[in-house]
Every structure is written in structure tokens, then in C-alpha cells.
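agent> step 3/5: call structure_predict on target 'Cell division protein' (Haliea salexigens).
agent> reason: downstream docking stage needs a structural representation; sequence fetched in step 2, passing through unchanged.
tool.input:
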Amino acid sequence: ATPAAANKPAAPKPAPAAAKPAPAASGDWFVNFGSYSERSVAERWSTRIKPGAGRVTVSSAQRDGETFYRVRVIGLASDSAAQTVARQLEREYSLSKLWVGKE
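tool.output (status=ok):
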């Protein structure tokens, strides 16, 4: 004889939970990862670094008639949060002290 449970249809599987989007970066503090004379170099770095907070951007700046492209981690909530991200990136990429600032 076949057990009664074997004749019941399987319970539907629960739908997988939707991935939560990363929280939007909010805050005025930033870490300047580097400044480059070529936008393509800055863009490559911007896709490689993975900070623990904030978001990575590339912005242009003028200095002495030349354009530089800054890779920054922006949207950090405090000086402390920015310093933490800076130390993480310094260790990860064997860098000297990164510049931390406020917009």
C-alpha cells in the first residue's frame, strides 16, 4: 500500500525574496582615492575599488589649466565613516594616507 502523503501534490515553493538594493549613500563626507590625467584610468579604478560604505564616483577638476579626473567615495555620513573607508582602501591597495574631506 502507498502512504497517503505520496498522493498529495507537493506544496508550492515560496518565492525567493527580492534582493534589497544597497542603501543610497547619504552624507557630505568623501574619500579621494586618486586623481588621474586620463578619464579612462579613473573609470577603470572606479569599477575596481569596493569600499565598505558610500559610492564611487568620477568627477573632473581643473588645475593649472589641466583637467584631472578624481575617483572618490562619496556619501559618507561622518568624518569617522570616511576615515574608516580611507584606512580600508589604504590597506587593500597599499596606499599612503588618502585625503578625506567634506563637500
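agent> step 4/5: record observation. The two ends are 76 Å apart (CA to CA).
agent> proceeding.
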